[in-house]
Please model this.
Amino acid sequence: MYEDYPEEISEGFMGYRGRYKDGSSEIYDRYKYLGKIDNVLMIWRQWSGGGTGHFSDINPLKRVKNNFILIKDGPGGDRCNGSITDAKIENNILIYKQNITSSNMFDLLNHQSNIVKDEDLMRIFKMVEENYDLLDSCAICCIGEAEFYGDTLTAINFNEVNYEKSLENQYQNCFNQISQKYITEGKRRLILPEIQNFVEEFKKCIKLSEIR
Model:
């Protein structure tokens, strides 16, 4: 069991915090009402059940009599794996940012219709999807943020960090090398044409002939 204690309201959030009575870990649950989209309530939730995970996600809710029903899974996740870092509603559209890993980035690109996908790029997406360790995917392996306008990816913001080189992983080596080049050139925020250039450089770097 745990005991509650008051949670300060900050930046529009409200909720509660608590700590297990043995003092082992803290739990919290915070909510922020963003507004409505087509009569669907959009709630930004941040929470932890006391483990290592710290989750942040958008919950689309509908009111049914005296209950609120989650109508679908919204964007979000645990720390670097998709946690929401900023969100608002403008003109009936959800605009948000979420943390991503290098693996998350390629998964997002795979599901974006505005990214030109030739046969080679589709092969890369398939390799990344089927081989969990080709690109970093851990919950503390943030490479930056993805920006969305509704369901459409609009930009990638790279963290200003020195990416390590791992000789054992060609995919991650290529990702780190190209990311560092963009950061060094002062291009931390990539919009769609630059994201397309990034994946084209990635294709060349990993020597596609070796994975055919």
Q: What stands out?
A: The chain has two domains: 1-74, 79-212. The CA atoms of residues 167 and 173 lie 7 Å apart. The mean pLDDT is 89. The longest strand covers residues 26-37.
